[in-house]
Design goal:
Keywords: Exonuclease, Hydrolase, Nuclease. GO terms for molecular function: 3'-5'-RNA exonuclease activity; nucleic acid binding. InterPro entries: 3-5_Exoribonuclease, ERI-1_3'hExo-like, Ribonucl_H, RNaseH-like_sf, RNaseH_sf. It comes from Rhizopogon vesiculosus. The longest helix is centred in the last third of the chain and has 17 residues, at about 245-260. The chain is about 25% helix and about 20% strand. The chain is α+β, with helices and mostly antiparallel strands. The model is unreliable at about 1-15 and about 185-220 (pLDDT under 50). It has a single domain (about 20-185, about 230-280), classed as Nucleotidyltransferase, domain 5, CATH 3.30.420. The protein is globular. It has helices spanning about 5, 90-95, 100-105, 110-120, 145-160, 175-185, 225-230, 245-260; strands at about 5-10, 15, 20, 25-30, 35, 50-60, 65, 70-80, 135-140, 170, 190-195, 215-220. The strands form 4 sheets. Strands 4, 5, 6, 8, 9 and 10 form a 6-stranded mixed beta sheet that branches. It binds a DNA duplex through β5, α2, α5 and α6.
DNA sequence: TAATAGGGAAGTAGTTCCAA
DNA sequence: TTGGAACTACTTCCCTATTA
């Protein structure tokens, strides 16, 4: 009954339904931006300064849960005022494009969490009273770090417990693209970057390497640009490291994975109680331990 | 002070080839 | 036929990059 709408020709010429059974009703695509200083790495107490989320839903989900068309139905975006180090570094402003004035006039993280919870309740994802999930939704991010690191750190610094609606299921989009790319290796070599004599010194005394140049390819880490390229999508739209632009491009990747029949299910986890070396009492950053 | 994926190096076992 | 060298395929371990 759906075939005339949702099928594509197979290599044998037959029509086949490519819709995969999708257990989740909605996806929250998140790509936070956080404070940073050049050379400090990611063990530093980064504070979230932008909270952008694209809410995606199925256009064509059947009663059995089969679907392939995913679209953005709403967006939430808020800048966040850092409290531990309210002054942004020049490096951070250059990287993210976020200005000091934008964070100065922004609400603090606990306020943003409350506003975002209202956004979720408005869309029927959580209960407005208790904040408990009502529908099945899954968080999506580029790599597992946004929630695993930045949200956990920010909740510690802001002295707020991690809300129940963010402790749920997490899909690392990068990992999904990588898995899809591996499964379809014969069909695409888009992200294979050939490296010849730069990587392998040619030694004519070695018969293994003599003669024709070896066909050695090295898989690069799948940044967002390469994920788009691997899926045959147009290049990144907007400004890289702008949270909302990153989230929108991530949503494009999600939609393409869905269209290609990838089952969108969690593949990452978080540890809400994880501690970093600079963590003192709740909310306390042990500056004496920081390697500035 | 973390988890993870991926690449490179090194080691090992099996196969092939060739001279004695 | 045999022993040794060369080659290939595979596994394991270690290191690096990743995330602002």
């Amino acid at each position: 009954m759906y075939h005339h709408l949702y099928s594509q020709p197979s290599s044998s010429g037959q029509q086949q339904d490519i819709r995969e059974k999708q257990p989740y009703e909605a996806f929250l695509v998140l790509d936070v931006e956080a404070t940073c200083r050049e050379g400090t790495g990611f063990d530093w107490p980064n504070e979230i300064i932008e909270w952008p989320v694209c809410l995606m839903r199925w256009k064509d989900r059947s009663g059995e849960g089969n679907a392939s068309q995913l679209e953005i139905v709403d967006e939430f975006r808020s800048f966040v005022k850092p409290t531990w180090r309210p002054q942004l570094s020049q490096y951070c402003m250059n990287l993210t494009g976020i200005t000091q004035a934008q964070v100065d006039s922004a609400p603090t993280f606990p306020v943003v969490l409350k506003r975002f919870a209202r956004f979720l309740a408005k869309h029927g994802l959580i209960g407005s009273e208790n904040g408990r999930p009502i529908q099945r939704f899954c968080w999506c991010s580029d790599g597992p770090f946004d929630i695993r690191h930045f949200v956990v750190k920010q909740c510690f610094i802001s002295r707020v417990p991690m809300p129940p609606w963010i402790r749920g299921d997490i899909l690392d989009v990068r990992r999904s693209v990588s898995s899809w790319e591996t499964d379809n290796k014969q069909e695409t070599t888009a992200v294979e970057v050939p490296i010849y004599s730069f990587a392998v010194p040619l030694d004519i005394t070695d018969s293994r390497r003599a003669g024709q140049l070896p066909e050695i390819s090295r898989r690069q880490p799948l940044n967002m640009h390469l994920q788009l390229q691997a899926l045959g999508l147009p290049e990144f739209q907007g400004r890289p490291h702008s949270g909302i632009d990153d989230a929108r491009n991530l949503a494009r990747i999600m939609a393409e994975l869905a269209r290609r029949g990838v089952r969108l299910i969690p593949n990452a986890s978080i540890r809400p109680n994880r501690r970093w070396y600079w963590m003192g009492r709740p909310g306390e950053v042990r500056e004496d331990l920081l390697q500035d």
